[in-house]
């Protein structure tokens, strides 16, 4: 009998072919070059111009969001999202403990404290039941908002993150937000093209954010977007991301501290072409999931992470889950996959265990701590 690491390498080879195969590799086989040339010829390569508008319109179309503001990256969108929702210095912001570092950084940019919560095992997103229980036990409604009685701090927002492209239980999280009067930031950076109960991710939160970094399902090199159904929030986000400049034909009047966070036209040109292919990318990633499923049925001690119930996932990142008794083999599995040329990696270290966040409050993280040791991410490019 072959050992688990070599069995997994064999299964990955049967799906992805001989290495090297990166974890993510973008594919530019649509109109990217044409639109970039056109953008260069127009001279409108910065943040004013046709391609930024086109990109925002196309994002509206694919998500159904009412308003879209394109930004320079997902982290900037999160920062501005928190700000337009009124998160301020001294506030506390609820965050899941298993996520990329961006939302936790954005909370610090806003001058607020992250407060880390456990995940649930169906989607690996924030556990709504544990959160609701904690809020009932700990928070009170005051004129200034929802207050954590232990710390005396206001809960400024709840950030829900859809990890690996799989929808978290976002509607239950939104219910909690409404119940306690706390706004929701929906970090859909990894989840463009996914739906939950038939509704596109990125349209649930008071604001939602996307990323178009090179590893995401649609890339602009670097880029992001803020989505909202509220015109006032969109207007304010647009204003803040364009240096808070008042519209005027020649004067430079900025009415508050602003940010230079808008997406350049050159990047937007790539994005318009990429969005034309989103449907194909989602299809390719979903097929890749089934191919990994088929290959891994032969391997004992491991399963492939499937989309949660009532969800349609873009399968942005493919993951295998080692059985509990096999989690001590994770590092060996990752080492052997990399030795064979596959860009496999573990899940992110839990946010509250990273140096900048160790001193912030956290709730018991039983599930996050267990699952993080069992996840191995596999090559997920649409070209595989
Ligand atoms: C990629 C990502 C972001 C934003 O990343 P940027 O690199 O700033 O565009 C935010 N949250 C999650 C969960 C991500 O995966």
Structural class: alpha/beta
Which consecutive residue ranges, at least 5 long each, have pLDDT under 50?
A: none
How many beta-strand segments? 16
Mean pLDDT: 97
Helix content class = 25-40%
What series of H and E elements makes up the topology?
HHHEHEHEHEEEHEEEEEHHHEEEHEHE
Radius of gyration: 21 Å
Distance N to C terminus: 28 Å
Assess the beta-strand content as a share of residues.
15-25%
Structure annotation, total helices: 12
In what order do the strands lie side by side in the largest sheet? 1-11-10-7-6-2-3
Q: What is the general shape?
A: globular
List the ligand species: pyridoxal-5'-phosphate
Sheet with the most strands, sense and barrel status? 7 strands, mixed
Give a quick precis of the structure.
It is built from twelve helices and 16 strands. By secondary structure, it is of the alpha/beta class. The protein is globular.
Structural commentary:
The protein has 384 residues and is of the alpha/beta class. Helix content is 35%, strand content 17%. The protein has twelve helices and 16 strands. It has helices spanning 4-16, 32-42, 50-63, 74-84, 102-109, 128-138, 170-180, 231-241, 265-275, 278-296, 330-339, 366-371; strands at residues 67-71, 92-96, 113-117, 139-142, 145-148, 155-161, 184-187, 195-196, 199-200, 207-211, 224-228, 302-304, 311-312, 318-322, 345-346, 375-378. Strands 1-11-10-7-6-2-3 form a seven-stranded mixed sheet, with helices on both faces. A four-stranded antiparallel sheet has the order 12-14-16-15. Strands 9-8-13 form a three-stranded antiparallel sheet, with no helix packed on it. Helix 3 packs parallel to helix 9 and helix 4 packs across helix 5. The longest helix has 19 residues, at 278-296. The radius of gyration is 21 Å and the shape is globular. It starts with a helix and ends in a 6-residue tail after the last strand. The model has no long low-confidence stretch (mean pLDDT 97). The structure holds pyridoxal-5'-phosphate. Pyridoxal-5'-phosphate binds at residues 73-75, 99-100, 102-103, 161, 187, 189-190, 211, 213, 224.
């Amino acid at each position: 009998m072959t050992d688990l690491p070599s069995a997994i390498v064999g299964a990955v080879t049967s799906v992805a072919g001989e290495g090297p195969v990166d974890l993510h590799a973008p594919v530019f086989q649509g109109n990217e070059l044409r639109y970039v040339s056109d953008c260069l010829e127009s001279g409108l390569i910065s943040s004013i111009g046709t391609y930024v508008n086109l990109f925002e319109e196309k994002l509206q179309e694919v998500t159904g969001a009412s308003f879209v503001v394109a930004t320079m990256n997902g982290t900037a969108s999160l920062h501005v999202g928190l700000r337009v929702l009124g998160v301020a210095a001294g506030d506390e912001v609820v965050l899941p403990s298993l996520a990329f570092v961006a939302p936790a950084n954005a909370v610090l940019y806003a001058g607020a404290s992250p407060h880390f919560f456990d995940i649930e095992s169906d989607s690996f997103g924030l556990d709504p039941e544990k959160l609701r229980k904690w809020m009932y036990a700990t928070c009170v409604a005051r004129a200034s908002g929802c207050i954590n009685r232990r710390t005396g701090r206001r809960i400024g927002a709840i950030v829900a993150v859809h990890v690996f492209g799989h929808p978290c239980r976002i509607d239950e999280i939104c219910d909690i937000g409404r119940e306690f009067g706390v706004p929701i930031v929906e970090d859909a950076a990894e989840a463009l093209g996914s739906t939950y109960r038939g509704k596109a991710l990125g349209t649930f939160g008071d604001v939602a954010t996307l990323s178009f970094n090179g590893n995401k399902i649609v890339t602009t090199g670097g880029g992001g977007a803020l989505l909202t159904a509220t015109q006032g929030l969109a207007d304010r986000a647009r204003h803040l991301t364009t240096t808070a400049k008042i519209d005027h034909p020649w004067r430079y009047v900025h009415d508050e501290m602003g940010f230079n966070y808008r997406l350049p036209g050159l990047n937007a040109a790539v994005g318009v072409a990429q969005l034309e292919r989103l449907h194909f990318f989602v299809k390719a990633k979903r097929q890749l999931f089934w191919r990994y499923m088929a290959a891994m049925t032969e391997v004992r001690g491991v399963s492939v992470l499937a989309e949660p119930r009532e969800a349609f996932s873009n399968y942005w990142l493919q993951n295998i889950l080692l059985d509990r008794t096999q989690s001590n083999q994770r590092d060996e599995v990752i080492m052997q996959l990399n030795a064979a040329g596959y860009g496999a990696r573990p899940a992110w270290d839990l946010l509250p265990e990273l140096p900048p966040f160790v001193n912030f409050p956290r709730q018991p993280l039983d599930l996050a701590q267990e699952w993080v040791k069992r996840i191995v991410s596999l090559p997920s490019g649409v070209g595989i």
